[in-house]
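Task 17 of the worksheet. Students: predict the tertiary structure of the chain below and write it out as structure tokens. Keep your answer in the requested format; marks are given for formatting as well as content.
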Amino acid sequence: MKPLVILATASRALADSWSATLDLQEPVRFADPARLAALDHPAGSLVLWDLPPPPLPAEPDLIKICQHYRVLALSSRPSDDEGMLWLQRGAVGYAHAMSAPDLLRQVYETLNAGGIWVGREIMQQLCVRFGQLVPPATPDQTWVNKLSGREVEVVEALRLGLANKEIARKLDITERTVKAHLTSVFQKFEVEDRLQLLIRLTDGKVGDHGA
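Model answer:
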């Protein structure tokens, strides 16, 4: 059974476009996103939120909405500052409201798989922020002991917010090899992306999932 999807937009045309692109079955539509604060639908439902101009619901209500639902904030004028603000509120994704169909489907699939979707610049900022909280790569750290030496080097590069191409250049390996190492690391820690990985490593107490 597909999860409930809520379309928070005043535009019927935009709602119809999202529904057709994602092949949504009977999505719920709210023309007034403020109604989301009533939390009438199951926790964890995915909300595609067409970001309106102010006024928005009060900040405590926005945070409560993002905690109850899984919010994909979709902006017609996306900016890194706005994206960071919505992620800080608890949104799981941020993208252009008029994303091409193939891209929107990719975003949707990523979120349904438990991942987070943001632009490259925002992802780099978040990786740096959480990377600073990851304990140093010393032999007594559990996360280090689960990885090969090269995988540790890749994770250390992620902490700096480096993209795959930059990691490849830094470690003198190919991008394909970087992707292979990342896939291996993600599998070992049962995460979907680099941001989830760094968040997972912040306390230095990584369990033996998948071991």
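Marker's comment: Residues 205-211 have pLDDT under 50 and may be disordered. The first strand starts at residue 5 and ends at 8.
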